[in-house]
Design goal:
The structure holds two protein chains of two kinds. By secondary structure, chain A is mostly helical. Chain A has a domain at about 1-215: ABC transporter involved in vitamin B12 uptake, BtuC (Orthogonal Bundle). Chain A is built from 14 helices and no strands. Chain A has helices at about 1-30, 35-55, 60-85, 90-110, 115, 120-125, 145-150, 155-170, 175-180, 185-190, 195-235, 240-270, 275-295, 300-305. Chain B is α/β, with parallel strands linked by helices. Helices cover about 35% and strands about 25% of the residues of chain B. Chain B has helices spanning about 50-60, 75-80, 100-105, 110, 120-130, 150-160, 180-195, 210, 230, 235-240, 245-255; strands at about 15-20, 25-35, 40-45, 65-70, 85, 165-170, 195-200, 215-220, 220-225. Chain B has a six-stranded mixed β-sheet, sandwiched between helices. Chain B has a three-stranded antiparallel β-sheet with strand order 2-1-4, covered by helices on one side. In chain B, α5 (about 120-130) packs across α6, α6 packs parallel to α7 and α10 runs antiparallel to α11 (about 245-255). Classes of the chains: A mainly alpha, B alpha/beta. The interface between A and B is large, with 38 and 51 residues. Chain A: Belongs to the ABC-3 integral membrane protein family.
Chain lengths: ~325, ~260
C-alpha cells in the first residue's frame, strides 16, 4: 500500500487529471470540427515551454505557461496569416505551422542545454510520469497529513487546479459555449461574442496542453484532446451526455492506461513496466473501437435508426 | 412591441452607401436602401448578388468597406434587441448534439443574459415558440433526426423566441416541403399583422409577388426597390438578372404572373 502511494498514486492521478482536462475541452474542439487545431496547439506550445524553461531555469509553471501562451497565440496568428496570404486550405496552413513550431521546440531543447537538466526529447514525446513520486507517503494516513501532502508532486496539483478551472468555466459558460459552437453567426447577431468565446477555448486548450505536457507528453496530449470526445460522440447525440461520457472515457483512458502500463506487468509477473503514455493511447484506441461497434452511430445503432433518415436539401450557399 | 414616438414612420432597416468585398471582389457596391416601416419585404437577385451578404453586413458578420446601417433609425448596438436573424439553414452543422428545444431556446438567451442557466420560464417560452410552428411534439428530438423542413421550423421558432420587431431571414423557404412553406407563410403574415417587419432573401421568382408586398432587387448594386406591384416588372428583372437568359425568361414569366415557365 505504501509502495502504491509512493510510486503509483501521483502518476496515476496526474495521468487521469491530464486526460480529464484535455478530454473535456476536446468536446468543444470536436463539436466545432477543430480537432486538428487542438493538435496544432499541443505541438505549437513546445517552443514556448522550452523558452519559458530556458529563461527561468526552473520547471515552475508560470514562466512555461506564459511562454506556451505566447507560442499558441503566435501559431494561431501565423496560421491565419498563411491562410489569407498564401490562400492555402486550413489543414495545410495548420500542418505547416504546427510541425514547424514543434521542430523549433526540439531544436531549442538541443541548443538551450535544457536537456542536460530534465527536459529532453523523450520527455517531450512520452511525458515523465515515472518522475512523479511521493516519497513522503508512509501509509494511508499520509493522504490526510498536511506535511506529507505538501510534498505531493506539484505537477499533479497544477493539473488538479487546471481541471477545476475548466470545470468552472464549463459550468459558468455552459449555454454560451454551446451557442457559439453551434451557430456563431446567430450568437453574434444577439450579442453573445462568439469570437471571444472561441478564443477563450483556445487559451484553455493551451493551458491544458502545458499542464498535461509533463504527464503524457506533447504528442499524446492530442490523444487526450481528441479520443474522449470522439468516443463520447459515437455513443450519444445529447449535449450534456457528450460531456459526461467524454469524462468517463478520459477517466478510463488515464487510470486504465496507467494501470495497464504500471500495475498489469506486476500482476502478470513481467519484469518490466510498459510505457504509460503509450498504454493510455492504446486504451483510448480500444475504447474507440468498442464505441464504434456498440455506439448509436455504429453498425448496431444505425440499424435501429434506419427509420428516421434526415432529409437534406442541397445547400444554397451564396 | 416597443413603440417609439416618431413624427414620421422610420424605415425598419436602412443602409447607406454600403460596400462589402471578399478578396478584393466587390459583393455589394454602394447600396443605399430604406425598407418600408413595416410589412413583408423580399430581397431578390441572382446567385452571387450579395443578398445574404447584405443581411450579414447588418449584423456585422462580414467586414464592411464602407457604409452605415440603421435599425429603426438606430445603430445596431442600440437596436440589437429589436432585430432578429434567421441564418441560412445550411450555415450550421445539423449533426450537432442538441435538441429542437435547446436550439429554439437560444432565442431566449438575450433575455436570460450571460453566466447562468436558462430560467425555466424562458425555456417554456421557447417551447411555446416551437408550438407556433407545429413542432411542440418534436421538442425533445435531436436536430439531426429532423427533416429539412422541420429543421427550418426550428430555426424559425428560435427567431420567433427573440420577439423582435424586425426579422432578417436568409432563404426561409430553401429546401422545405410544401406544408412547411405554407406554415412559414402563415407565420410571416401573422408577424406583419402584429406590425412587425420581415425582410427575407427569396429565390423563387414565381412566389415572390404572392408572398411579399415589397421588394428590393439586388445585384451587387441596388437595382430597384418599392412596392411589389410597380417594382417587380420584366424591365427591372432584366436589369437585375442581366444576360442570364434562362433566368431572365423565368423572371419575365414570373413577373407576368404565370407559373408556366417554371
Amino acid at each position: 500500500m505504501t509502495e502504491f502511494l509512493q510510486l503509483d498514486l501521483a502518476p496515476m492521478l496526474a495521468a487521469t487529471l491530464a486526460c480529464l482536462a484535455c478530454g473535456l475541452l476536446g468536446n468543444l474542439l470536436l463539436l466545432t470540427r477543430q480537432s486538428l487545431l487542438g493538435d496544432a496547439i499541443s505541438h505549437a506550445v513546445l517552443p514556448g515551454i522550452v523558452a519559458g524553461f530556458w529563461v527561468s531555469g526552473t520547471r515552475a509553471a508560470a514562466p512555461m505557461v506564459a511562454g506556451a501562451m505566447a507560442a499558441a497565440v503566435g501559431a494561431t496568428l501565423l496560421i491565419a496569416l498563411v491562410r489569407s496570404r498564401a490562400r492555402l486550405e486550413p489543414g495545410a496552413a495548420m500542418g505547416v505551422v504546427f510541425s514547424g513550431f514543434f521542430a523549433l521546440g526540439l531544436v531549442l531543447i538541443e541548443v538551450s542545454g535544457a536537456h542536460a537538466v530534465d527536459l529532453d526529447v523523450d520527455c517531450v514525446l512520452y511525458g515523465q510520469l515515472e518522475a512523479l513520486i511521493w516519497p513522503a507517503a508512509t501509509g494511508p494516513g499520509s493522504l490526510l497529513d498536511p506535511v506529507a501532502l505538501a510534498e505531493f508532486p506539484a505537477e499533479a496539483k497544477t493539473l488538479a487546479l487546471v481541471l477545476l478551472l475548466i470545470l468552472g468555466l464549463l459550468a459558468l459558460l455552459w449555454k454560451e459555449l454551446r451557442l457559439a459552437a453551434f451557430d456563431p453567426d446567430f450568437a453574434r447577431s444577439i450579442g453573445f461574442a462568439p469570437r471571444a468565446l472561441s478564443l477563450l477555448v483556445l487559451v484553455m486548450v493551451s493551458v491544458a496542453c502545458v499542464a498535461a505536457f509533463w504527464a503524457v507528453g506533447s504528442i499524446l496530449v492530442i490523444a487526450a484532446l481528441v479520443a474522449p470526445a470522439a468516443i463520447a460522440r459515437l455513443l450519444t447525440d445529447a449535449y450534456a451526455r457528450q460531456f459526461l461520457l467524454s469524462g468517463a472515457a478520459a477517466l478510463a483512458m488515464g487510470a486504465g492506461g496507467y494501470w495497464a502500463a504500471a500495475l498489469a506487468p506486476r500482476v502478470l509477473g513481467l519484469d518490466h513496466g510498459l510505457n504509460a503514455a503509450g498504454m493510455m493511447a492504446v486504451t483510448a484506441g480500444l475504447l474507440l473501437v468498442g464505441a464504434c461497434l456498440l455506439g448509436r452511430r455504429g453498425p448496431a445503432g444505425r440499424a435501429q435508426r434506419r427509420v428516421a433518415i434526415p432529409v437534406r436539401a442541397p445547400a444554397a450557399a451564396e | 412591441m416597443s413603440a417609439e414616438p416618431h413624427p414620421l414612420p422610420v424605415p425598419a432597416l436602412s443602409v447607406q452607401h454600403l460596400s462589402v468585398a471578399y478578396h478584393e471582389q466587390p459583393v455589394l457596391w454602394d447600396v443605399s436602401w430604406a425598407s418600408p416601416p413595416a410589412g413583408l419585404v423580399a430581397i431578390v437577385g441572382p446567385n452571387g448578388a450579395g443578398k445574404s451578404t447584405l443581411l450579414k453586413a447588418v449584423f456585422d458578420l462580414v467586414p464592411r468597406l464602407s457604409g452605415e446601417v440603421r435599425i429603426f433609425g438606430r445603430p445596431l448596438a442600440e437596436a440589437r434587441r429589436r432585430v432578429g436573424y434567421l441564418p441560412q439553414r445550411a450555415s450550421v452543422d445539423w449533426d450537432f448534439p442538441a435538441t429542437a428545444l435547446q436550439v429554439a431556446a437560444m432565442g431566449r438567451y438575450p433575455c436570460a443574459g450571460w453566466f447562468r442557466p436558462l430560467p425555466r420560464a424562458e425555456r417554456e417560452r421557447a417551447r411555446a415558440a416551437l408550438a407556433e410552428v407545429d413542432m411542440a411534439d418534436l421538442a425533445a428530438r435531436q436536430i439531426g433526426q429532423l427533416s429539412g423542413g422541420q429543421q427550418q421550423r426550428v430555426f424559425l421558432a428560435r427567431a420567433l423566441a427573440l420577439e423582435a420587431d424586425l426579422y432578417l431571414m436568409d432563404e426561409p423557404f430553401a429546401g422545405v416541403d410544401a406544408a412547411t412553406e405554407r406554415a412559414i407563410v402563415e407565420v410571416l403574415q401573422r408577424l406583419t399583422r402584429e406590425g412587425r417587419t420581415v425582410i427575407a432573401v427569396h429565390h423563387d421568382l414565381a412566389t415572390a409577388p404572392q408572398y411579399f408586398a415589397h421588394v428590393l432587387l439586388l445585384n451587387v448594386r441596388a437595382i430597384a426597390a418599392g412596392p411589389m406591384a410597380i417594382t417587380f416588372t420584366p424591365e427591372n428583372l432584366a436589369r437585375t438578372y442581366g444576360g442570364r437568359l434562362s433566368l431572365l425568361e423565368q423572371a419575365v414569366a414570373a413577373a407576368q404572373g404565370g407559373r408556366a415557365g417554371l
